[in-house]
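#dry-run=false #mode=assembly
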Amino acid sequence: MTWVFWGIILVFAGWVIWTYNGLVALKNQLQNAWKQIDVQLKRRYDLIPNLVETVKGYMKHEQDTLQKVVDARSKAMASTGIKESAEAESALSQSLGKIFLLMENYPELKANQNVLQLQEELTTTENQIAFSRQYYNDLVMRFNMKQEVFPSNMIASFFRFQPGEFFDVADAEKIAPRVNLTLPA
Amino acid sequence: MIFFLLVGLSVDFVYFGAFTPGGPRFPIATVSALMFALTLTLTAFGFGGNLILGAVGAEGLDIKIPEHRELHNVVTEMALASGCPMPKVHVVYDPAPNAFATGRDEKSSAICVTTGLLALLDREETQGVVAHEMAHIKNRDTLVMMLVSVLLGGVALLSDWAQRSFLRSRHGRRDGGNLILVIPALLLIMLSPLISRMLAMAVSRQREYLADATAVEFTRNPLALAKGLEKLRDANMPFQKASRGTAHLFIVSPFHRGVDERDGKLADLLGTHPPINRRILLLYQMAGLRPGSQEFRDSSAQTAPLAAR
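#status=ok
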């Protein structure tokens, strides 16, 4: 009879270990995904000056929009803190979108190979930023779900896991909540 | 795999008389054929990715060509969205629009796209197709189909064994009353390779639906993939260099479809891919558009007869 008892203890211990390791793995993937977003953002900083230089000659009437892009980029590079940099990056994305829209009015621009190449590079950078954020949010969802679902919620609360925070860019109207992304060490 | 097993069984039966009362008890040829076939299958699984790429004539990307650069960027985006490491990207210079993914796991995967597809689909639709291929890699469909083919071989082996043991037992017995039970059982055993083949094809089709859904999970854009599939369906160009074993890896079936495509039951049961119209329908439903509604008619260029199943 005692080996049945020890067998049950062993199975239970195995389940605890397996669930704990799953939670730890998700937490680490989450931290990695968060850092990967920064990698994508840095790429964009390097590409923007090239774009502005290339289109400045053609888009003579859009100087102030171009200047807005340059300013937004400087602001984004200088911003510190998660909330501030998220807002600055969002402003930069918006101003870039305006430039792309305006480029539609200049057919000579569309014939220029350099411009097309740059546009593709910027498009893919924007997409990569978006997909990195999407992947991060998906990981946050899975991590939080695992902490709330029974029976792994018992393990999560026992080992004091904290839920992850979704990546959220504050709107102008919304009062930005304090985004606390400190994950337990 | 089945071929080797049947060869092994024939050798056993004819040369060694394995299953008759006079011969050896241990079917040596069958077991060695089984071992050989298993080794072959596992080798194909492990290294087959490169073999397939060689067979279709896949080449590396030329980054000077804008479309190739765009493809590389799209694959990077999908690798980020799925969380997989970046696969190797290849191109096939072929007008038939198609794409496939190979590799035994995430780390040694490759995606291959034909130039026909690059020319036909725009960036958004190519993204949907690439997401579908990344989904195959993420869901480990090459592993799944290898296991299914191994099981297929096992079923063929068992059914043949059972048939021969029936024949053996009838030499000794002359029991008329048993015959009524024997005939359906024998029929079932003889049909079991066919039935298991249909099941394997059913697995392949369900994995295709799963890959479509996972692709939407990556891109969050079901309409792009739907429009891409519509364009691929209308192009209707078979890809010459695909074989039956590799067909399940492609996004649309590489074999020639009949001009007046009837959604016949038998054709569907033995197909590696689900009917493409049904795949498109499901994607439109994921986008929240009901067929028959005005938005659906606006969005879809041509709604071919849809098999409601």
